[in-house]
Amino acid sequence: MTPAQTQTRKVMLSAVQPSNHLTIGNYLGAIKNWVKLQHDYECLFFAVDLHTITVRQDPKEMRDQTYRAIATYIAAGLDPKDVTLFVQSHVPAHAELAWVLNCFTYIGELSRMTQFKDKSAAKGGGEGQNISAGLFTYPVLMASDILLYQTDLVPVGEDQKQHLELTRDVAIRMNNIYGKDTFKVPEPYIAQVAARIASLQNPDQKMSKSDPDPNASIFLTDSDDVIRKKLKRAITDSGSEITYDAEAKPGVSNLLTIQSAITGKSMSELVNSYAGKQYGHLKVETGEIVVEAIAPIRNKTELLLKDLGYLNSILKDGAEKARARAHTTLKRVYERVGFIGLDQL
To answer: What mean pLDDT do residues 328-344 have?
Structure first.
């Protein structure tokens, strides 16, 4: 890719938290799409470790999971020569810009964030009890992640749309005060096939890395046999007909969604193939399809993790590229809000 070609591509940015092992939901809902898009856009993909500590983490486990996240990105098909892969904390400008954005974000806006309400309730705290300020201001750091790189497009799922809307609001607010070229106002990127993978044990909820039920999620670290067993135990629905109906048959629909996201087959094609078959057939065949998709990624990830020297070189190169891009935006913002630049001394 020549410099001229690079400059004509729009900037796309996305990330995953390195907390717990990544699931097939992370892969089908995000990483698989990144791989498809990596040559069409100027892409930055990273592990958001600063976001991760809104919940208490074991330091060693977190470092291991951060390496694993980057290794998984590469194993899944991202090319470090064409995309920028890095770790959020390696670019201090994320935290620096977040403070400035905090001063232009309103408490009322943050109070309306659905994820904050849900996570606060899950922690069992009362009004403000045992809830970190970081969890409350999490969307501002996310806004910093996006605006720092003058991002054009952000792949988003339903659970992140509200955060992107806040990012856009803050960017427009600051552009109105300091000039319309302060920040590029990002647009959501909605994938043609946005696979929302549900819990295998509670198909009304999204599959989660932090689900306490180990049978609810398929992790990218799971062995072939574990994957098969989890899918055999997956909750289905009343009746016996295999049809796609997310409301009436969420369990069956979830298994069909997994198959469609992996194989690329249409839902009608899959449903027709199960005419006269039982739920057991669907579970077994879904298990084999998932094993075929996940095993190569899992095996390559393990090989990459044995070569930390290689991974460190990728992270160092990615951090340098990201810092250079971030510095341009941060310098502009600092100048416009009135800070004295070091280069002026």
So the answer is: 91
The radius of gyration computed from the CA coordinates of the chain, to the nearest angstrom, equals 21
Residues of the chain with CATH 3.40.50.620: 3-190+308-344
pLDDT above 90 coverage of the chain, percent: 75
Cα–Cα distances in angstroms (integers) from residue 29 to residues 6, 12, 221, 256, 304, in the given order? 26, 16, 17, 14, 23
Q: Are 5 and 145 in contact (CB under 8 A)?
A: no
Phi and psi at 187, nearest 5°, equal -110, 150
The pLDDT value given to residue 118? 67
- Residue tagged 């390559």 (tokens): 300
The CATH homologous superfamily for domain 3-190+308-344 is HUPs (3.40.50.620)
**Strand-pair category, 84-87 with 153-155:** unpaired
Does the pLDDT value for residue 115 go beyond 50? yes
Map residue 185 onto helix, strand or coil: coil
Give me the active site residues, please: 119, 206, 209
CA distances from 155 to 28, 37, 183, 276 (A): 13, 10, 18, 38
Task: Please give the Cα distance from 265 to 81 (Å, whole number).
Answer: 31
pTM over 0.70: yes
CATH 1.10.240.10 residue window(s) in the chain? 224-303
pLDDT digits (tens, 9 = 90+) for 29-78: 889 999 999 999 999 999 999 999 988 899 999 999 999 999 999 999 99
Point out which residues pair with 189 in neighbouring strands. Answer: 155
Please name the CATH architecture into which domain 224-303 falls. Orthogonal Bundle (1.10)
Residue 5 has pLDDT above 70, yes or no: no
Are 294 and 222 contacting, i.e. CB atoms less than 8 angstroms apart?
Answer: yes
